[in-house]
Amino acid sequence: MAEILEIQQEIELYGMDWYDPTCYAIEILDAKYEKITTDDYVEQLEHLTPQQKKDLKGVLSTFT
């Protein structure tokens, strides 16, 4: 009985969304992965210098 009272107090304090196990803020979608070449990936990294991009391409081509 004490446990039920505690749950009721938590529901009043936090609201029913806290207690409802079927209530989610957003739906979790399945991940969609696509294969991409290392060259395409490195070209997207705009914060790297051309030399850093070249070095990274070398490392990624060695350790795919």
Description:
The chain is mostly helical and 64 residues long. The chain has a domain at 32-64. It has 4 helices and no strands.
Helix/strand-derived category reads mainly alpha
Strand content: under 5%
Shape: rod-shaped
Overall residue-averaged pLDDT value? 80
The biggest sheet, with number of strands, parallel, antiparallel or mixed sense and barrel status, is: none
Helix/strand order, N-terminal first:
HHHH
Helicity, as a percent range: 55-70%
Seen as an oligomer or otherwise, the chain set is single chain
Q: Number of DSSP strands?
A: 0
Number of H/I helices:
4
| Low-pLDDT ranges | none
User: In angstroms, what is the radius of gyration?
Assistant: 25 Å
The first-to-last residue Cα distance is 59 Å
What is the compact description of this entry?
The chain is 56% helix and 0% strand. The protein is mostly helical and 64 residues long.
What would the keywords be for this entry?
4 helices; mainly alpha; 56% helix
Note the topology:
Elements: H1 2-14, H2 16-19, H3 38-43, H4 50-62
